[in-house]
Amino acid sequence: MDTKRQTRHLTQAQADALTKVFSKANVDEPGHVPPSLVPELITQVFGHGIGSTDLEAVQRKAEAKATRSGVDLLDFIELARELMRHTTQWGILQTRLDSYVGFDTIQDQLKRKCLKRGFEFNLMVVGESGLGKSTLVNTLFKSKVSRNSCSPDENPMPKTVDVRSISHVIEEQGVRLKLTITDTPGFGDQINNDHWYAQ
User: Fold this and answer.
1) Distance between CA 72 and CA 172 in Å, rounded?
2) What's the rounded Cα separation, in Å, for the pair 129 and 131?
3) Any long-range contacts for 115-118 (C-beta under 8 Å, 24+ apart)?
4) Whole-structure pTM value
5) What is the pLDDT of residues 135-176, one digit of tens each?
6) Can you give the pLDDT at residue 171?
7) pLDDT digits (tens, 9 = 90+) for 66-103
8) Angle formed by the axes of helices 38-46 and 73-85, to 10°?
C-alpha cells in the first residue's frame, strides 16, 4: 500500500501521533496488532468520548481488515481516518491553534498573507522630453532604478528614445516589492504648440 495515499487527509502531526500509539502497543509480532486491541488504541488516540457503539464498529472493521498476523499500521490509520469523519472527538489528533482564529481577524490574516507573498507595483512615467521623468523615479526610490542619473564626473543622462520597462525586486524590513517601471519617450514633442494661447 502507498503510505502517502493513506495519510493524504491527515496532517504530519496526526500521522505521527497514530504511528506513535501503534508502535507503543505491546504485541508479540511488531508491525501488527490483534483486532481486539484496536479499540483500546483508538481510545488512546481519540479519548474516552468515543461511544461503545463506535468502538464495536471499529473492532468489526478491524477484524475484517486483519490478516493472519493482525492489523498493520496502514489499516489502523485507515480505521482512524474513517472514525474522524464520524466524530468530533479527535483527542490527540486535534489541531492545536497557536492563536485565535475568527472572522474578526480576517484583515490581519490577509495582511500576513500579503506580506509573506510580497507586492507588485507598476509605474509608468509620461511627459515631455527633459522634464525629469527618469530623475523623478530615481529620486522617489532613492536608487538608480530607472536609468543612471548624471553626475558632474559622468556623461549627461541619455535621452529616452523608446518605451521600455525595467523590473526590480526591492526588499525592506522583510517585505518584498516587485517594482516595474515603464519609461516613455517625450510625449507630445512633435506637436506644434506655438499658438496654444489662441484657442
Assistant:
1) 52
2) 6
3) 115/174, 115/175, 118/175, 118/176, 118/177, 118/178
4) 0.44
5) 888 787 776 766 554 455 555 555 556 777 888 888 888 888
6) 83
7) 888 889 988 988 888 888 887 877 777 776 666 666 77
8) 50
Alpha carbon of residue 102 to chain centroid: 18
Q: Is the pLDDT of residue 48 over 70?
A: yes
Q: Is the dihedral of CA 36, 37, 42, 43 positive or negative?
A: positive
Q: Could you give the 3-state DSSP secondary structure of residue 114? A: helix
Instruction: Check if the beta carbon of residue 21 is closer than 8 Å to that of residue 38.
Output: no
Amino acid code (one letter) for 176? R
Residues 6+ apart with CB under 8 A from 128: 186, 187, 188, 189
Q: CA–CA distance from 116 to each of 109, 175, 197 (Å)?
A: 11, 7, 53
Contact by Cβ (8 Å): 19, 73: yes
Kindly report, residue by residue over 51-68, the tens digit of the pLDDT: 888 888 889 999 998 888
3-state DSSP assignment of residue 28:
coil
